[in-house]
């Protein structure tokens, strides 16, 4: 499964730790957006649990968007960066 | 169609204008993430054209993710905010 994870974190230390955690699951495509291509349900739940322990629920937010093959194929980019490579991720 | 649009814009004036433009198409769910629920192909192309005229292609990036009904139903959130309301958007 492919997930896009975006975040708004107010505290610099917490943001650092959230980014560090996300780097274990995917690629940083924008300052507050990661693409996590090879997620299983188990990996996703573990990531979500970890992030939920890190963030301040009164100020921070993390959004998780699962993208199916069809949606993934339609990703477009303006400016820097490139769309995810669907074939490379061997999406079912 | 439902689009998630995320951006990294270095210049404050350009970012202000990008946000202003996006507000005409959807809702700001995080600092650099908008959800645009009722997009037609024509509206999407007009939005993309507008943003491409505004941004600095050497420093900025805008990413457009179309989300089908199935992907939209799986959106999850930790902390502040809520997932998009699929029924409300009458997604086909």
TrEMBL record, chains A, B:
Residues binding Mg(2+): 8
Alphabetical UniProt keywords: Antiviral defense, Endonuclease, Hydrolase, Magnesium, Metal-binding, Nuclease
Biological process according to GO: defense response to virus; maintenance of CRISPR repeat elements
Matching InterPro entries: CRISPR_associated_Cas2, Virulence_VapD/CRISPR_Cas2
Cofactor: Mg(2+)
Keyword Hydrolase belongs to the record: yes
EC number(s) from the headed UniProt entry: 3.1.-.-
Database matches in Gene3D superfamilies: 3.30.70.240
GO MF annotations, alphabetized: hydrolase activity; metal ion binding; RNA endonuclease activity
Pfam families: CRISPR_Cas2
Family per similarity comment: Belongs to the CRISPR-associated endoribonuclease Cas2 protein family.
Annotated NCBIfam families: cas2 (TIGR01573)
Role summary: CRISPR (clustered regularly interspaced short palindromic repeat), is an adaptive immune system that provides protection against mobile genetic elements (viruses, transposable elements and conjugative plasmids). CRISPR clusters contain sequences complementary to antecedent mobile elements and target invading nucleic acids. CRISPR clusters are transcribed and processed into CRISPR RNA (crRNA). Functions as a ssRNA-specific endoribonuclease. Involved in the integration of spacer DNA into the CRISPR cassette.
Subunit composition and interactions: Homodimer, forms a heterotetramer with a Cas1 homodimer.
Protein name in the entry: CRISPR-associated endoribonuclease Cas2
Taxonomic placement: Bacteria, Pseudomonadati, Thermodesulfobacteriota, Syntrophobacteria, Syntrophobacterales
Gene designation: cas2
């Amino acid at each position: 499964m492919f997930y896009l994870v975006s975040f708004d974190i107010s505290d610099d230390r917490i943001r650092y730790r959230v980014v560090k955690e996300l780097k274990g699951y995917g690629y940083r495509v924008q300052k507050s957006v990661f693409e996590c291509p090879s997620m299983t349900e188990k990996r996703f739940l573990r990531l979500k649990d970890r992030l939920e322990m890190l963030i301040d629920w009164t100020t921070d937010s993390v959004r998780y968007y699962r993208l199916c093959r069809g949606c993934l194929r339609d990703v477009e980019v303006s400016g820097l960066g490139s769309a995810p490579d669907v074939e490379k991720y061997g999406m079912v």
